[in-house]
Records
---
Amino acid sequence: MGKVGIIGVGQSSFVRGYPGSIRELAFEGFKEAMQDAGIPTKDIDASIICSAPEYDKQRSPAGVFAEYLGLVPQPTCYLESLCSSSSMGLRFAYSLVKSGLHDVVAVIGFQKMSEISSAESQERMGRGADIQWESPFGTMMPAYYAMYARGHMEQYGTTLEDLALIRVKAATYGQINEKAVYRRPVTFDMFSDPESPMSNPVASPLRVGDCCANADGSSCVIVANEEKAKAFSKKPVWILGLGAASTSVNLAGRDLFSGLTVAQQAGEEAYKMAGVTAKDIDVAEVHDCFTIAEMMAYENLGFAKPGEGKELIKAKETYKEGSIPVNVDGGLLSKGHPIGATGGSQIRTIVLQLRGDAGEMQVKDPEIGLVHNIGGVGLYGNVSILGR
Amino acid sequence: MGKKKKEVDDRFKRFGTVSFTSITKINDFIDYLDKGKIMGTRCKECGLFFFPPRADCHNCFSSDMEWLEVSGTGKLVTYSKLEFAPIGFGDDLPYAIALLDYGDYKVFGRIAGDVPENEIHAGMEMTARVNTLPNGQLNYVFHKA
């Protein structure tokens, strides 16, 4: 059994209020990936459609997308693990190809969050946690991650200033990413300026500036077996390692509140499968739905020891020129977080980086990249390691 | 004989400001809340204790459970005070969600509204008590022990 490669990547611009339907939104990411791969649609043997449910009127989007994208009569299905849906899609595409069942599989992620209001969206997102035992208390994603932020602060003395540095970095790159929803600069001083929306409290200790932006968007990753990848692509990027994990949905069933066990576990698995360690990673995309999430990712993935993530960002080691560049496309914080499309967009960024096609965001000559994609409040974790 | 309308046991709809569940096998939990008691379940087969309570044991596959009261004090693990709320919870603002560690199990809930914010800190001893919300619904909140 040979290697499994990625031969095409694409994403739509991440925007507020996409002026089209979900099938039209999906078309944008798919078209870019197919043009990148340079193959006709008939060469796609199967498709996996990834998003978080309950945003759309459309039940079972897979069939609708397959028809609109010209992917019938090949098999298609819908797959979800909340915000990590399209990384989970990559995992399933890998297994379909590795098993020999299919040669080429398209993983299409999408979310049109603006189908519903922001308050409704918070309610939907909150119901990605335990609806029987927690949602009746009035939970929402920022408050859950805020509980982890407080846990990290209590455990390690992390400060709000440390977290603000992560937002400033994200905005540095969001400004140069033409597909990002938030393209304005964010300065450190905004967090202490009561006039700036960045400083407004959302759920203590997190502020508006600590939270990512909802967005509409789509992404697509074309996965192929070694033979097809070499035949179709001059610069295939190989899937070297995959890790995935889950944990108790209810916080009452967890023990760690200064990190995410799913990220630790998925990371260890992915490193082991790829035969590499954290030191070998040249560029990474991590799931910064909140600033604290990136801080925890540094530590859970082994880029820093537990509690020392703040030293990485203070020293700018996670900037483009640093020792371990992280989210140099703006991350979820500035690029935006259209839930089901996010993993595919992170994979796209790493693939472009490894091929040397990342333009102004290009890190110097990376060989191995990592994608860390989390679903729910650390409920699902996917780590994917890619290499050229 | 006339047709008798089937009675639906939907007691769980009374849990929390807005409940998203109405029918569950552990609906007696609500009756206990009415009596001021917060209860978990223990598997009679293998002895595993569950909070939140469960109808089924994943350890031995038994569904033979007994109720046991959550009592004593727990340590505050972490919390967050919300300035925005999801739909249906706006009238409760501001409120803080929190987690108490009782040693063998943890309880997710809210901090009582009358606990001054400057007195809240991780590690403090607190007690979970049943609370009736202004809309008549039931939940539990954490008081200083």
Note: Residues 4-117+214-232 of chain A form a domain with the Peroxisomal Thiolase; Chain A, domain 1 fold (CATH 3.40.47.10).
---
Amino acid sequence: MRCGNLRVRTRDRIQAVSGISRARLRSPREIANAVSSSRRTFLREATGAAAAGALLSVAPRRAWAAPRGRKAVVVTFGGGARDEETFMPDGQENIPNLLTALIPRATFFSQMVNRGILGHYVATASLATGAYETFNNFAAVPPDRPTVFEYFRKDLKRPAGDAWVVAPSNGFNRIGESGNRAYGRGWGAGVILPKRLLAAALSSSEGAAYEHLLRDNYETPLYAPELGGSQVELHQMAEVLRLSVADFAAHARVLASPDELSVYIARHLMRQLAPSLLWITLHDIDIAHSGTYSLYLEAIQRTDRLCGEIWNNIQSEPEYANKTNLFILPDFGRDSDDDAGGNGFQHHRTGDPLSRTTWMMAMGPGVRENIVVERPAEPTDLVPTLGAILGFDARLSQGKPLREVL
Amino acid sequence: MQPRDLKASQFASYPAQARELAAGRVALLQQLPLGFLPLLLREIIVYDWKFPPERSDLDHQLAYLESRSPAERRQLLANFERLRLSPELESYDWVNEPGQFSERLTTHLWATLQIDAFRTAAIDYVRTVNAAAPPAPLAMPRLSIVVLGKDVAENKYKLFRKLRPYGVYFNRVRPENGLRVLLDAVTARAQAHPSPYRHWYIDGGSEEPVSSAGLVRFSYDSLSAARGTLQEKMQKTFQSGIGPEAFRTMLARMRPAELGLGDAPDAVLSRFQVSVLTEGSGTQIFSTTFVQWAAREAFRRAQPLTLLLRFAPRQRARPMNELLAETQRKPELDPQGSLIDADMGSYYTWLNQQRLAGMETSSFLVWFENHDEALAIGPSLARATESSSPVDLEHLVKQVS
């Protein structure tokens, strides 16, 4: 296997040349410290940090045959959480599940550098296509390049019900299917927007009163684009999820946030349809745009808990247990306290290194546990990595498969 | 239109002082690149409502650009010149709508992945221009005082966690009459060194009575009518179905009179208040965000010598299940969440103060209202230390003055 100018044969050898540090650490806290230390070093040397990655510029590729029964769940969250509120010492109290339950079972990429537009829909679309999309973040338009769902379904001849997206309502209704001629219409994922369903599930008089529930774009608080995609409508929900409208609305009344509703729907999907590719986009953390630090912290804590629940759900569902890879990553970071052009945690407008840098964890079969990867990678690498695991070719993506999890 | 085609008559719609400033420098403006000039005009067009330090900075910037030779100016602005702009931007009315041009330029720079190049160009430019003008000595060392935690009975959140490395943490503060002591201290500073917009008091609830006429002061409650009007306008604009760009333009064009502030005696201050409400995300809804953002903008624009902030409880963000169970209920307050917001807000206030000239002599005091915790930072105070000696607010004010 060629790897740049080096011939490497074993994973240990790869670690030796690529700067991967085998995390033989005693506690999750020490792992977190290693992660944040690595990030700080990166941020200090942001402009010259690609050297280690260059060694891995040519990555191995698995054969295009999908391992039988292999599944993948991707969890992204819009409105990234900063190191200060997560992996730094003061922030570790906010992420007990990530620290103690997930990271020890994961390969953890400590430097995912997003070089694209730092707007949530366009950035999430870029994650899904493996290429930096450049459309208007606030427009309900499909991505230009094929999405991971189209590659997956077309290459592997998978039926429509085998790829699903659960996402917030603003704009994300178009994320399941691109405008690309070679893929596009008919090859995408089913899209469920739980808050839209909830609004529809309420009576018309109630619906008006709950209009604010549809707000999930905290940066432009009153804007929610018109729908135009192929998201699941209310009347389809009962059929698809075998979940009555009444049960759905009743359950929503005991949940604290829209993200909890999304995870509730995702659980139903996993149980009823068991899709091989499931993409869940959480969004509560973006409350940070309102400038309320305590609500931002609460959202991080909730997201941490939900990530733990999703992993536990994967392990407890027979259709998923021991054959599912889970990827968790924020779409990007938030502004640094040190940048006078921003206002710290509130926004992601400066484009500074901290707002562009986040992390990703990968778990499941074939992925080594307790590993911290220090070299920079990019979120566009996710789709080709999924391709290598599931057996499709993300031929129009800009990223490269992450060899550390293959 | 390109900058070289600019004429003095095109500034006819600018306010009086801005018009005079721009028209008198047409020869210079004609030589600036399109990726830069509208951003300068965005500042010039609001010259009439700028605070004294902002005017001084803009005057200096223009004088500096005029003092450079054409070759030096080209070199200084070369990175702006290299930005690739679209035909739509080139044909936009950037003379009369530089703010809207700026919004579109930002979108274009992100979409064409040029935002990092722009960011580098802007940082280098500001650094060069600032280096050419050593800051004038301050009339007195800067002092910020933050009061937080109103109505919090009991707290388990570790306060001042980000500030402790920089000062002394006091855990036996005698709280009696504390707020009055702080208000009096601020008033005394305003009287000792009277100067327009140099001494500020911003309250997240309602203003406490203060006597000094030299103090800029306003509160979240004092702007409640303006906030209500603004929220109504925002809601109507949203319901009209326009997109986010038009929504932002509507906010950017908002004038004091439209929010019922047209008769305010101080046009500069009322413009500032409108900008806090229209440019600050969350300032219309959460009082803690309002106070933090107003302080940030006051530091950035007016560069006060004295700033007293008092955070008050904001309305509680209700979880989804509560919203579903009960839609019509008077907003409740969240003192504990507000305390955490304000704790971070106090850290940001200190950071913003330290970005200004005179940082080596400036001081900072934050107090948990009606409780025994405080933290003080100043040139004569040790860093990362703790004091368990009984102390009152009067003594702490002396230590940071």
Note: Chain A has one domain: 2-405.
